[in-house]
Q: What sequence folds into this?
């Protein structure tokens, strides 16, 4: 019985040790943390809301790739998988969905902004508007 238990433990440890750890988990960050890195050249900021929501106001130089559109994955392929990707929506639900999709696509560093635009605006941070 001890041999079986030791064998199972050893198999578990080998399995865990051999797993690919190259992709990180999804990191949830605050709007304050996002504001600190907003001007970095090494980030990709993605607004995953609808185009109409994006036009009403968005963060910095965010690009709009709506997660509920059928072409989300096709457009996301144009992002650099090796550069950090920061995602937000209105409150956090759609950006969490987008983060999971990007993780499955092999993106290495994914940040989901907690509270989305609602939290961003409630802190009084600057937004940009787009014209149709």
A:
């Amino acid at each position: 019985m001890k041999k079986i238990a030791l064998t199972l433990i050893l198999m578990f440890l080998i399995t865990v040790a051999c797993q690919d750890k190259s992709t990180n988990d999804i990191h949830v960050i605050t709007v304050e943390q996002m504001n600190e890195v907003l001007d970095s050249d090494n980030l990709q900021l993605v607004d995953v809301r609808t185009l109409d929501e994006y036009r009403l106001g968005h963060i910095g130089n965010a690009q709009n790739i709506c997660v509920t559109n059928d072409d989300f994955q096709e457009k996301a392929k144009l992002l650099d998988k090796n550069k950090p990707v920061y995602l937000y929506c209105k409150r956090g639900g759609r950006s969490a969905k987008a983060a999971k999709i990007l993780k499955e696509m092999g993106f290495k560093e994914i940040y989901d902004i907690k509270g989305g635009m609602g939290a961003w605006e409630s802190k009084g941070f600057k937004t940009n508007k787009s014209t149709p």
User: Anything to note?
Assistant: Residues 15 and 118 are 42 Å apart (CA to CA).
